[in-house]
Every structure is written in C-alpha cells, then in structure tokens.
C-alpha cells in the first residue's frame, strides 16, 4: 500500500510518497497577474514571467483553512503531479493544533468521499517533527517550536504524546514579517506594498536574527565601509532581469548602476525578524519565542523540565533565519536557572520540511496502521471514528 505525506502548510505544501527521498514544494495558494488575465494554481507560478503586483488567493486565513474550493484545486494539482492512486494510498495530512471541528470534518469528507483514499492519518506538524527528533536521538522528551507562515506553536512532547497544558501559540509568523518589511521599505524608500512576492524574497535572502542587537544597531549607524550590515537588493525589471538578487557587501554602495533599481536594507535586515523575539516592538501583545518556551516548560511538571530544556527543537520556515538558534539559546538562558541544562537544535537546511521527514519515518513505523482510520471504518462510523482516533483530548 502506498503512503503519501502532505504537510499542508499555509504558505507551502510539502508532499511526497514515503519512498521519496525529498518532498515536493508547492505554493499553497492561487495567484493572479496584475492584469488578471493569467491565473496560476500552486506550481503553475513557475510559468509566470512578471511577478510584479501579483494578487494572492489563499485557502488559509490566520492559519485556519477556510476556503476549500481553493485548497481542492491545489490538492488536485499535487496529487496529479505525483500520480497518486487514491484508492491504493494511505494519506498522512497535517493540520494546525486545536483545529476547528468543522474544518476537520471538511477535510475528512474531501479525503474519503471525493478522493477515496484508502485511509487517513490527520495529525499536526509539531507531532511529526517530535516523532523524527525522538526517534533519531533516542529521547523521551522534546519541546517543538514550530514557527511558520501564520503563527508559531510551542509544544512539549513525551514519548510522542503532546502535553496539552504546555502548548503555547504566538500569533505571529513569516507573513507578518514580510508585511512589516513592505511597510518599512515603503515608508523609507520605495512603495512596494503590492510587491509581496518580491519582498518575501528580499526577506529570505537578506534578513537575519541578530545575536547582539545593540551592537548591530551601532554598526548600522555608521557610514561607508564601516557599516558592514547595509546591503543592496537589485529589483527585477521583468525585461532583462526576471529575479532580483542581493549584492555582496563589497558591491553594496547604495548607488544603482546603469538601469538598476535597488532597495537598500540597513537595520531592517535584523529589526524585522526581531519581531519573533519581541512582537511588542510593533504593538503585538504576544510573548516572544524565548518567553513562550519558558512559559511552556514551566507549566509542565517540575520533574520533566530539565529534559524539555535539554531538547528544544526549532522547525518551520522561520527557523531558516541565520542566528535564530543562537539567539533563542541566549535569551532563554537569561530567563531560566543555571540548574537546567539548555540545548537548542535546529536543522536550518531542512527546517521547512522537517515535519514531512517525520511523516516519512512514521509511515514506515510498525505501529502506523494502528494510527489511521480506513475508508471502510469511515463509511460505517463517519466523523466520530476520526474524532475518536485523532483528537488531542482522547
């Protein structure tokens, strides 16, 4: 029986069979060009020649799947490109922690009644990440920090089971960072409020987490070569240049060459992703990642706190920011007693797909068949069978 893993992120869907070495990445949205003549579903965006002023239609709003018509079109493309034979395939699909019942039931109906999959495992991404970490490192405990597009979840685990009282959610993710960068650049340099696609690339290429915020702020105030932080980003013109790029430190002078149009990032490079640590900087009344980690662990029984602090795992798209691992260690270390041994793990290269690899490992586990709901069972008992099997409170 084939096993297909779909880590259904709000911005990127990571998918593939358990026998695949790597997951396929699919934009989890539909885009329309500026003139609205062209519509691109998921990976069809690769055919776009002009990314200026793209209009996005996302199935997710604030991290919750609300538009099933859009999601259905994207899933159709994913399953078609991977040649998924649904009746002969077991599906693992991720959902947010504490997802709405209505959304879960819509998913189950789509999986069983429309696609006709053989069986389903509905699970959250931090659980898959924890499964991979615990199996790989032969541990019993871990604390997963999953920072994605719409929000950040902190979830403690014991032997693969989530500890409910320790779950924390920060309503801030990559989307907020991109929007804040757009606002900052538009106010200081050039109106880019409609250029979400391009500014997201700028964020991914140039932004980083400062490990010494005050020192970097001082450097950013210097002029000329003394300022080692300021960098230029050449914007695409969609004539001779279809994709923008960051200039090296030596090439970044702040002066455009020939027909170039540039954006110059200085302290924005680290003040924008700093929101992950201090959301209150722009008036968002949420804890930062370090505070949320401590709050999560301290809500757990005292006899397991040392194990949790020793096994903190950073995953998700925002874990790719250079310096996040070091900064989280530094900030948490300042907040907790030295009697606790602290260890932060982050696979920056695979942080985005870490949960998918966890699903790949789980699919090959000997107990996998006990975790799923089959179509036969669903046809007989309906949503109640899935609720009994998958809900966190059971």
From TrEMBL:
> What keywords were assigned to this record?
Cytoplasm, Cytoskeleton, Nucleus
Q: Name one Pfam family in it.
A: Actin
GO CC annotation, single: cytoskeleton
Superkingdom, taxonomy of origin: Eukaryota
Q: What is this protein called?
A: Actin-related protein 6
**Organism classification:** Eukaryota, Metazoa, Spiralia, Gnathifera, Rotifera
Q: What does this protein do?
A: Actins are highly conserved proteins that are involved in various types of cell motility and are ubiquitously expressed in all eukaryotic cells.
Say which species the protein is native to: Brachionus calyciflorus
- Which CDD domains does this UniProt record tie to the protein? ASKHA_NBD_Arp6
């Amino acid at each position: 029986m084939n096993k297909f893993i779909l880590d259904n992120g709000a911005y990127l869907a990571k998918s593939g069979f358990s026998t695949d070495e790597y997951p396929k990445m699919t934009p989890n949205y539909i885009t329309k060009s500026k003139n609205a003549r062209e519509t691109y579903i998921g990976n069809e965006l690769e055919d776009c020649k002009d990314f200026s002023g793209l209009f996005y239609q996302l199935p997710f709003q604030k991290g919750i799947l609300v538009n099933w018509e859009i999601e259905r079109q994207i899933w159709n493309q994913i399953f078609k490109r991977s040649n998924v034979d649904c009746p002969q395939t077991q599906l693992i699909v991720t959902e947010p922690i504490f997802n709405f019942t209505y959304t879960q039931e819509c998913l189950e109906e789509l999986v069983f009644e429309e696609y006709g999959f053989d069986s389903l495992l509905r699970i959250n991404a931090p659980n898959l990440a924890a499964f991979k970490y615990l199996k790989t490192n032969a541990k019993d405990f871990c604390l997963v920090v999953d920072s994605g597009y719409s929000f950040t979840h902190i979830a403690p685990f014991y032997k693969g089971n989530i500890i409910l009282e320790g779950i924390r959610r920060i309503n801030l993710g990559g989307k907020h960072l991109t929007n804040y960068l757009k606002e900052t650049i538009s106010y200081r340099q050039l109106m880019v409020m409609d250029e979400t696609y391009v500014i997201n690339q700028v964020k991914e290429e140039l932004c980083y987490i400062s490990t010494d915020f005050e020192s970097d702020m001082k450097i950013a105030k210097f002029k000329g070569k003394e300022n080692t932080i300021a960098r230029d980003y050449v914007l695409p013109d969609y004539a001779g240049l279809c994709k923008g790029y960051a200039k090296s430190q030596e090439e970044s002078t702040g002066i455009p060459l020939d027909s170039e149009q540039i954006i110059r990032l200085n302290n924005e490079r680290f003040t924008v992703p700093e929101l992950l640590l201090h959301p209150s900087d722009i008036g968002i009344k949420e804890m930062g990642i370090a505070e949320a980690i401590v709050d999560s662990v301290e809500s757990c029984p005292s006899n397991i706190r040392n194990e949790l602090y020793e096994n903190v795992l950073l995953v998700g798209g925002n874990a790719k920011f250079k310096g996040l691992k070091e900064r989280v260690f530094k900030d948490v270390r300042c907040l907790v007693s030295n009697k606790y041994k602290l260890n932060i793990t982050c696979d920056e290269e695979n942080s985005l797909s870490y949960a998918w690899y966890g699903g790949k490992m789980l699919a090959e586990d000997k107990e996998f068949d006990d975790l799923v709901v089959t179509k036969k069972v669903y046809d007989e008992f309906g949503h109640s069978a899935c609720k009994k099997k998958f809900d966190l409170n059971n």
